[in-house]
Amino acid sequence: MKQEELINHYTAIADALSVPLFLYNIPAHTGNTIAPETARQLARHENIVGIKDSAGSYDSLKGFLDAVRDIDGFDVLNGPDSLIHQGYVDGCSACISGLANVAPAEINAIWSLFHAGDIAGSRQAQERVTGLRTDLYKVAFSPAAVKKALQLMGHEVGDSRYAVQFSDQQLQQIRDIIARYLA
């Protein structure tokens, strides 16, 4: 879609809703990228209150933060688990983390330490989360790997919607990752 079409699309949705709307930039799954300037234009709508950026790059996240920094009441939320700490440093109000399903305390530590003023501790917590993310996502792509890790941790969350078959070796790799990072 062209940026003008995205503006028209999100404006129509925001006009029709009685609840606040967050934009969601996840081009890998939608095939569309919301440009920072598009988010800035949409941020002027009284019912559009923020954006979650899951493009996966620091440049994308920073672009949104820079574009809307002067707009009160419009939040930028970080999506990539690898950028949580840096997102807070640069001004993100929150993150929505897929990995928090497996490691809620570890993800929360990044936020808690950052807001307590322990920037070095927050960065260390981020490094640990990044290690977990890197190792887990080497086994399988994120939704399936997260669900399988949750199952191996004793949580019944159902199977991945994608037809992913884990070998015994992959299951052991995930068990080892859980033991290394979450024990």
From TrEMBL:
CDD domains: DHDPS-like. SUPFAM superfamilies: Aldolase. GO terms for molecular function: 4-hydroxy-tetrahydrodipicolinate synthase activity. Keywords: Lyase, Schiff base. Its EC number is 4.3.3.7. Gene3D superfamilies: Aldolase class I. The keyword Nucleotide-binding does not apply. InterPro entries: Aldolase_TIM (IPR013785), DapA-like (IPR002220), Schiff_base-form_aldolases_AS (IPR020625). It comes from the Bacteria. It holds the Pfam family DHDPS. GO terms for biological process: small molecule metabolic process. Belongs to the DapA family. This is Dihydrodipicolinate synthase. It comes from Klebsiella variicola.
